[in-house]
Write a structure and sequence with these properties.
The structure holds two protein chains of two kinds.
Chain A lengths: L5 E2 L3 H12 L2 H6 L6 E7 L3 H11 L4 H4 L5 E9 L2 E10 L14 E3 L6 E6 H8 L5 H6 L4 E4 L2 H6 L1 H10 L5 E2 L3
Parallel strand pairs in A: 1-8, 2-6, 4-5
Antiparallel strand pairs in A: 2-3, 3-4, 6-7
Chain B lengths: L1 E5 L7 E5 L9 E11 L1 H7 L16 E8 L14 E4 L9 H4 L7 H4 L2 E2 L3 E2 L6 E5 L3 E3 L15 H11 L8 E4 L3 H12 L5 E5 L2 H10 L3 E4 L5 H8 L4 E6 L7 H6 E9 L13 H6 L3 E4 L8 H10 L11 E3 L4 H9 L6 E4 L2
Parallel strand pairs in B: 6-7, 10-11, 10-13, 11-12, 13-14, 14-15, 16-17
Antiparallel strand pairs in B: 1-2, 3-4, 3-8, 3-17, 4-5, 5-9
The chains are: A alpha/beta, B alpha/beta.
């Protein structure tokens, strides 16, 4: 999969992003005092992306369960300019059949973290491809700060830009 | 007459004494006091935050009563008669300066040096007081004179702040700190058509009171994250945030105010209180921050009295505790413990 890129969003993409963060010295310097977990929530995930994600996770297709995916979220444990782990959340408006299991770093349900940043799938795509600026997006509330201090985020705007730039070091595949 | 006089900065702050009844001087009215409010600003006063206070000073700046007598040269623009029910403003403008002429009489320089019960003039924690006639505002029929006392401070301060911030029908409002002024703001904003009205405090009983007075949502910030909760209710933020805490810091306000929104501050803080604001969101989001002192006695107070007389604002709902004069130190202790929504002392 790495040769053609990791599907965004997915647990594999989250792990690759975490690894790329740890290789980014500029981010490490800009975020040396950052000490909070951050969840990036993608809403309005297109059906074909949700289907692909379900396939990656070994889940039934949402449409076969009669539901739509509410959101997908990547949670990163960010400490002092490093990424110390990632989790992937998929929020389905139903319980999974009892015979279905998910990988350890995948959770079913809503994410919680010190900071929760929410945007549409297509807007995160614009961030990852460099078409959108993360600080402008925060100020214009295209990225919504659902939890955590907006003012703290703005103080770390330089780190936010470098974090966004790091996504371009992640081999990414968009399947929409 | 019986009066509660200042002892010093240590508790008990006051003592009940017999003092001579004042006589109204030129341009003054003698008011027989019905009730006085117990206000947090008095605690600042007692502790010397507004400057030194002489022993024997009579505090109490939230006053209702009856006209007892007129001094010489009273112009009496309201046509008051002896026995008429009134409230007394703690803002006593000169009525002629440029601030007064432009409708900003709460910022009249003369008023800064003469505030009954706060600066320069004895207040209403007594059976009688004399005040310049410009401070005396008539009550409408049907307004309970005892429960009207908070109009002269808590309601007045809240009303002016809401008006300054442009609160009207459909304004989304967050009130941080629902003590006397914050609760008054909730109740007035509800009558003015604001929606939703979110009250934030750390005391459940204060939040229960806020709900009773018209808050559509209440948040105990010790039990849930107020930033997340407010953003759930108002994803784009609040049109207006009223910082009504005694020690405002603007931290939560700046997190939850909407773009082009307004933060209005009424908490006085102490002499060393300050707040800092992150410049980028302040400028980029076009935030207005307004300090709002008191009210315009001749403009705001009659409007509030009409809201009360019309039944849109029930002032009895705000008052949680009633004391007799001999309990006045207990009243201030309970205030410092945060037990009151609003308390009054009945003198007449």
């Amino acid at each position: 999969m790495a040769s053609e890129g990791f599907v965004y969003p997915s647990p594999q993409w989250a792990e690759a992003f975490c690894k790329a963060i740890n290789e980014n010295q500029e981010y490490r310097e800009a975020a040396k005092d950052w000490k909070w977990d951050v969840a990036f929530v993608a809403t309005e995930i297109p059906d074909n992306v949700a289907d692909k994600l379900s396939e990656i996770l070994g889940l039934p297709k949402p449409r076969d369960l009669g539901v739509k995916v509410n959101s997908g979220a990547i949670k990163l444990v960010l400490r002092n300019g490093t990424c110390q782990g990632s989790e992937f959340y998929i929020d389905l408006p139903t319980n999974l059949p009892p015979n279905v299991s998910v990988p350890a770093n995948v959770k079913i349900g809503k994410v919680d973290a010190d900071f929760i940043l929410e945007a549409t799938y297509s807007f995160w795509k614009d961030i990852i491809t460099g078409k959108a600026d993360p600080v402008a997006a925060l100020l214009s509330r295209k990225i919504k700060v659902k939890k955590g201090s907006f003012l703290t985020l703005i103080q770390y705007s330089s780190a936010a830009v470098k974090l966004a730039n790091t996504t371009r070091n992640v081999p990414t595949k968009f399947v929409d | 007459m019986k009066a509660a006089t200042y002892k010093g900065p240590n508790k008990p702050y006051l003592e009940i004494k017999e003092v001579s009844t004042p006589k109204p001087g030129p341009g003054e009215i003698l008011v027989r006091v019905a009730a006085t409010g117990i206000c947090h600003s008095d605690i600042h006063l007692f502790k010397g935050d507004f400057g030194p206070v002489m022993p024997g000073f009579i505090p109490g700046h939230e006053i209702s009563g009856w006209v007892e007598d007129f001094g010489p040269d009273v112009k009496n623009p309201w046509g008051l008669k002896k026995g008429d029910p009134v409230i007394v403003s703690w803002i006593v403008p000169d009525g002629i300066c440029k601030y007064c002429a432009s409708g900003k009489e709460n910022y009249c320089p003369a008023a800064a040096g003469r505030m009954p019960g706060l600066v320069g003039l004895n207040g209403g924690h007594a059976e009688y007081l004399t005040v310049p006639e410009i401070a005396v505002i008539p009550l409408e029929k049907g307004v309970d004179i005892y429960y009207a006392a908070p109009i002269a401070c808590a309601y007045g301060t809240a009303y002016h702040a809401l008006r300054e911030a442009g609160v009207g029908p459909g304004t989304s409002l967050v009130v941080i700190g629902v003590g006397g002024v914050g609760l008054s703001a909730v109740q007035l904003a509800s009558a003015m058509g604001a929606y939703p009205i979110i009250a934030v405090d750390i005391r459940d009983y204060a939040l229960d009171k806020a709900k009773e007075l018209g808050a559509t949502h209440v948040i105990n910030s010790t039990k849930e994250d107020p930033i997340s909760r407010i953003r759930e209710i108002l994803p784009d933020g609040a049109d207006v945030v009223h910082e009504a805490r005694p020690e405002p810091d603007l931290k939560l306000s700046m997190e939850v105010v909407a773009r082009a929104g307004t933060i209005v501050v009424t908490g006085l803080g102490g002499p060393k209180s300050y707040f800092s604001v992150n410049v980028l969101p302040f400028v980029v989001n076009g935030i207005r921050i307004i300090g709002s002192l008191g009210y315009r006695p001749r403009l705001d107070l009659p409007e509030i009295i009409k809201l009360v007389a019309s039944g849109k604002v029930d002032v009895k709902k705000l008052v949680s505790h009633t004391y007799v004069p001999e309990q006045i130190n207990e009243a201030y202790e309970n205030l410092e413990k945060g037990l009151h929504a609003r308390a009054i002392v009945k003198w007449g």
